[in-house]
Amino acid sequence: MLHRVTLLALGFLLVACKTYPNGERPTNSLYCDNFMIYEMCVTDLNSDGVIEFVYFEGSRQAFMYRPGTLRRLPKTLTLHPCATEMDDEMVRITSRMFYIDESTTLLEKTDIRGSLMLRYMAALPEITACNLRREAAAETGT
Q1: What local confidence, expressed as pLDDT, does residue 12 receive?
Q2: Domain membership flag for residue 119
Q3: 3-state class of 4 per DSSP?
Q4: Measured between alpha carbons, how far is 108 from 115 in angstroms, rounded to an integer?
Q5: Is residue 7 part of a domain?
Q6: How far apart are CA 120 and CA 12, in angstroms?
Q7: CA nearest 35: which of 112, 102, 90?
Q8: Helix, strand, or coil here: 137?
């Protein structure tokens, strides 16, 4: 009996020790918003406050992913041919979206969107080149 009580107490202790960024629990594990001209969603599959995938809501194609998560791509999503792996800073910035709620200030939301825009613009040349290669290959049939 003492053994079971000890195991139960340790279990509660481990759950209580789970930490989140800024010590807060994420308010959601799916966040969708209009970004530039696309409806995009970010998803946190295990509700740990860290993003796994960014995908287009309409086509349900994941175009960005956290390193080491491709094997966990949900069956409801497909991988875009030009999908890119996020670096640590992009993961950190994008994961902030899971903490947005009614009390989040416009300034903070704007900071997140601005940071994402800067990171996306830095990746745009590589993404554009990939899409152009795909278009050229489709035109030539290769």
Answers
A1: 34
A2: yes
A3: helix
A4: 11
A5: no
A6: 40
A7: 112
A8: helix
Rama region for 127: left / alpha / beta (φ>0; ψ in -120 to 50; rest): alpha
10 confidence band (pLDDT: 50, 70, 90)? very low
Give 35: exposed, middle or buried? Use CB within 10 Å, 0-12, 13-18, 19+.
middle
> Which tokens in the block code for residue 49?
């406050």
C-alpha span between 48 and 21 (Å, rounded): 9
Query: How far is residue 89's CA from residue 61's CA, in Å, rounded to a whole number?
Result: 22
Global pTM reads 0.74
| β-sheet bridge partners, residue 53 | 43, 65
Give me the number of domains the chain comprises: 1
Q: Greater confidence, 64 or 8?
A: 64
- For 39-95, the pLDDT digits (tens) are 899 999 999 999 999 999 999 999 999 999 999 999 999 999 999 999 999 999 999
- In the block, residue with structure tokens 């995908």: 55
CA dihedral angle for residue 118, residue 119, residue 121, residue 127, rounded to 10 degrees: -170
Pairwise CA distance, residues 51 & 34, whole Å? 18
Using CA atoms, how far residue 137 sits from 55, 121, 133, in Å, is 24, 25, 6
Can you give the residue range of the structural domain that contains 85? 28-140
